[in-house]
Amino acid sequence: MSMKDEWRRLRDMDWGEMDIKESGGWPFLLQLICCVLVLVLTLAGMYWYLAAPKAEVLDQARAEEERLIRDYRSKAAQAARLDVMREEMAVLEERMGVLREMLPTGAEVPSLIDNISEAAISNQLSIEFIRLRSPVSQEFYVEQPFDIRVQGDYHRIAEFLATVASLPRIVTQHDLMLEPTEGTGGQQLQLSMLARTYSYRQPDEEAP
Predict the structure, then answer these.
(1) Roughly what angle, to the nearest 10 degrees, separates helices 28-46 and 3-11?
(2) What would the DSSP string read from start to end of 95-134?
(3) What global pTM score does this model have?
(4) Is there a contact between 49 and 41 (Cβ–Cβ < 8 Å)?
(5) Radius of gyration for the alpha carbons in the chain, expressed in angstroms and rounded
(6) Over the stretch 67-82, which tens digit does the pLDDT of each residue have?
C-alpha cells in the first residue's frame, strides 16, 4: 500500500470510534505516530526519574570540585610564601619585643616617676607635684596617667620636656599648659601637664 493510500485512510478514520484493542487494524502511519509518541514519553520519563537527579548531583560535584581547586590554589600560594611570612613574623616579633622593653612594668612605674623628678631637678625646676592617677586597663596594655606641675624659666622647662620625651621608657605628654608665675615678672613659668606611660598586659592577665 502506498503512502498516499495511508494518508487517505488516516484522513477517513472515524476518530470517535477508535478502540485501542483494535490498534492492529489502524493505518500504518497512525501506528507509527503512536509508537514514536510512546517512545518519546518513555525516554522523557526515564530522564525525569533516572537521569535528572544524577545530573543535579553531577552539577553539585562539579561546583564542589571548582571550590576545592580554588582552595587548593589559595593554600598553594600561601604555602609558597610560607618562608617569607615566617621571616616577616620574626621581624614583627623582634620589633614587638623592642617596644615591650620600652614599656615599664607596674613595678617600674615608681622608678620612672623618680627619673622624671630627677629630670626636673637637673634642669633646676621646682616640683609642685607629680601625682599618679588610677590606671586604665586596655586590651593589651595598662595605661598609667599622672599629673605633673613644675616651675622654672622657659628654656629649662623646654629642656625638661625634651628629657622626659627621650626617657628609655615610653612617656607621652598631653594637655600642656604654660602660665606665668605670679610675682616673678614673667621670668618664671608654671608647667602643668598630663603624662601617660604604658605597661604591657598579657591577654589572660586580670585588669587592675
Answers:
(1) 80
(2) HHHHHHHTSPPGGGHHHHHHHHHHHHHHTTPEEEEEEE--
(3) 0.51
(4) no
(5) 46
(6) 888 888 888 877 777 7
